[in-house]
Structures are given as C-alpha cells and as structure tokens.
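Ion transport domain-containing protein, Polarella glacialis. Tokens?
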Amino acid sequence: MRVSKIARHYAMTWLPVDLLLVLLDWTLNALLLLSDDGIADFGSGVFLEKVHYLRLLRLLRLLKATSIISVLSDRIQSETMRILVRVLKLLVFIMLIKHLIACSWYAVGINDLEREDTWVKANDLKGKGKVYAYTTALHWSITQFTPASMEVVPMKELERSFTIVVIVSAMVIFSSFISTITNAMTQLRNLNSERSAELVKLRCFFSDHIRFLLRWLRAFRAAFTSQTNWQAPECTVKMSAFWNYCR
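Tokens:
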C-alpha cells in the first residue's frame, strides 16, 4: 500500500479525532500552567476539575483498537483460538465498563464536598489513599453486575439515582454478556465433540484393520529382510511377490 493512500485514508478517518484529542490535551495543560503560575484564576480549581472530564473523549480511541482486534482475529486460523479471543475481548470490555462506572461513582461521591452525607465521607476514603478509594469504587461497580454485596451504599439523592441507572443498565449488559459466553462455550463443546467423534472413528478403523496391518508388516519384513540394494532386479521380483502375498 502506498504512503499517499495510507495518509489519505488516515485523513478521512481518524485524523480529526486525533487532532481534537491533542488540542484538548494542550488546552488543559495550558490552563493548568496558567493556574499554577497565578496568571489566571479559575474559581479555586473547580472549573479545572470540571474540564478534566473532557479527557473522557480519549475513549474514542478504543474504537480504533476494536477494529485492530477484529483484523487480528480474522488472521487466526484455529476456530478454538477465535472463540477464546472473543471471550477475552468481552471480558476486557466488561472490565472497561466497570472501570468507567467506578470512576463515575467516585466522582458522584466527591461532587459536593460540603455535604457530609456522601458515600466517600461515610467510608472515610479521603484518608485511606487513592488506591483504596479506587478499589472500593471498582468493588462497588462489580457488585452491581452480580448478586454480590458490600458495605458501600448510596447516601444521598444523586447517589441513589446513579445506583438505579447503573443497576438497570447492568441487567441488560450482563445478561447479554452471559448469553454470549454461553454461546461461546457451546461452540467449544461442539468442536470438542466433533474431534472426539473423529478419534472414535480412527480407533475403530485401526481396530478393524489391525490384523491386515500386522500381515502387511510380516510380509514386508519377509520380502526385504535380506535385501540391501533396493534398486536390484531381485528387489523388484520380491516387491511383486509381496503385493501378491498381501492380496
């Protein structure tokens, strides 16, 4: 493929998205520098915290990764590996959704720091570090997709509404995920059953023809045990005698 053709294809597909994301990063970095140097005042950093949510637009690049994974999957020859890659892709997709829900859940908890009735303050996550806060939010996100439970519960109206939306969405997403996994496991089971049937046929073939095989080996050994030069005329005579014996 020519370079000009590649450049034209990129300009018509992902170039506008990449330019938008790069300009967004540059703008955010410039605003942070202006705020740190005291050149501009953005309302005690509240404005910058809101603007940081625009970085979620980076997730648009996942669409590019999806197309690349599809192309790589088409190059896999083994049907079993294709099914396993499909299942792995679904697991990664589900974990990505749970990660986004966990981040959104934490953002809802710190949305109004002046209020005391938030799940973040109720569990004292501010003093336990970012890792513990993230894992707690991720744990909560996972429990919304499964029948599991945990000690974190919504404390105010916004958190309760967010929880309802997540649970309703999780019912649809997780049921579709379970059906897809079940279908993939059924396909794997069918492939294994076909291979088992072929092995059974092979065993039956060898068991039915083992006597003929032993007879063929004995005749072959009797015909060529004393013959060292396979191109000799005597070898040709013994070969014809061997085939007559096998018949």
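The longest helix spans residues 157-224.
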